Known about the structure:
By secondary structure, the protein is mainly beta. It contains two helices and 20 strands. It has helices spanning 7-18, 203-211; strands at 2-4, 32-35, 39-43, 48-53, 56-60, 66-71, 80-83, 93-99, 104-109, 114-117, 119-120, 123-124, 127-128, 138-143, 147-157, 160-163, 175-178, 181-189, 198-202, 219-221. The chain has a nine-stranded antiparallel sheet with strand order 1-4-3-7-8-9-6-5-20, covered by helices on one side. The chain is globular and about 55 Å long.
Amino acid sequence: xxxxxxxxxxxxxxxxxxGWGAGAAEAxxxxxxxxxxxxxxxxxxxDMASSCTLTTIGRAKKTNKLIGITAGxxxxxxxxxxxxRYTDRxxxxxxxxxxxxxxxxxxxxxxKLVRPLRTVQGVTINGFDTxxxxxxxxxxxxGRTTGNTCGIAWxxxxxxxxxxxxxxxxxxxSPVVVGDRLAGMVNAYYTFGCIGTETGTxxxxxxxxxxxxxxxxxxxxx
Length: 222
């Protein structure tokens, strides 16, 4: 969901970037807490952004990079990412990879500015459940718009799952969990939000795609 931001946030998205990684005379800003279920802005232009949800945050085993995942339709490579709640703390990261077939995007985060979280509101991520979601599993999600909701999983087909989770615009990228295990992400809904069927990508195919990318191989959540 794209929305117009204030001039202050627009200026932030351009000026903070210039100082990314550079020394600063001022005191370092407070770190940005982000985890699976956090609301994010993906900057489309200087004053327009997509409102989405971070699926998870963690490290790539090979490179130790701090990265996160969200829905691919939220942004494209090169677009900057801000925390929805802490826009005043700077640019948190940048989209570095997208895969249309899976509708996923990878974000590289600025370690100097971001404090990764394992728990956001009602969802804790302690690992993965790579089994395709299937009936009658009860799955839950944490979204920036509708918060923490649960529903029955109907079935999976290919890399996609279908469930009765309540989602609307802005929940794209929300972590779908079974207990404390990440099972997938939210991508879309059919017909009516919170009434129509939710569909998303299972975590197994996402991890397989990350494993094929040298910089992100061996991704493990915080």
